[in-house]
Amino acid sequence: MCKITHFSSYLQENDYFCTQITMNLIRKGIYIQLFVLLLVLASCGQKQQEEPMTPWGGEEENIAASDFDLEQILSNGELIALTLTGPETYYDYRGKHLGTEYMLCLRFTNKIGVSLRVEVCRDSTEMLRRLKNGEADLILFRNNQQSKHLAWKIGDDKPELTKALKEWYRPQMLAEVKKEEDYLLSSRSVKRRVFAPMLNAKGGVISHYDAYFQQYCRQIRWDWRLMAAQCYQESTFDPQARSWAGACGLMQIMPATADHLGLARSDMFNPEKSIAAAAKLIGELERSFSDIRNQQERIKFVLAAYNGGGFHVRDAMALAQKNGRNPQRWVDVSHYILLLSQPEYYNDPVVKYGYMRGSETADYVEKIMQRWNGYRGVHTPHTHGPSGTPQRATHEKKKFRI
Fold this sequence. Notes:
mainly alpha; 17 helices; globular
């Protein structure tokens, strides 16, 4: 500040010097203005070039989004589909994905040589909004009244994709996919030999693997006969059993689950290692359901989670809680396990993981509990159905019966 004041005083005291400076500025003014103008133009040009490059908007991005047709899908290697959870669209089944529309779309993407990514939305409004915004290529849904044509909604900016789908689709494909899905969901899709449920009833020998059940069940404080009953339900004691979904061995462990448990995939058919891994998984499920205080009740929740996934079981518990039932009582929760196959329930706001084939899981738990009681020589008649409705109890002598 002192230097500026001093310089101002100096100019006032030296008129000649001030006059010279002024004249020089006038002569050079035009050049200064031209220089400033060039800077402004360069800045504007740079801005015009950079705007479309921004990842959050710009003319270039909008053009690319509206021009993402079949050629770009093929180049990108992925088709993105939006859908709602449901038995005819898309659902999780023991770690694999099924649903008629999903399987049909998978056929198409396999044909054109790209992968299929499915994103589940909460409602049709969300699907339409995301499709309009260019976040996906099409919407998968079912129109039961018009099966001769695909009911999928395809982006308006994708005429080539629309043309390819129309040329590819044949009405009989729907029946073919449905038949394939029914097969995958049946016991016929599991390759296994069926052994007797009891090796030596008089001697109390259930299977060739009793020693392993006894050894590894001690670590999780389970009755070894309970795991034996579960094993029979999974593989009928065939160590070479394999399902279409990739579940392997005595305890039908999925490859991804084997990786999580530290079971080498080369050992998945090894009886002892399969049982050891299953015991480890059961121990993890026991801890995840430690909020179920009654141990006998918790066993049923663990079995259900082993079969159908813990997230679906938690959804059923949330529904039980919401509807005034006891979420720690299996007879109440299994009621909602069954109802998770109905849209009214799998679309409920408290449900996070959507549709479930609940009848299979409820039946899985029921059969294992019956077989376990048979192995223990205990007969426990049913006093409640899955919905909690009292049923007539039958009385028999304590007798092993499968």
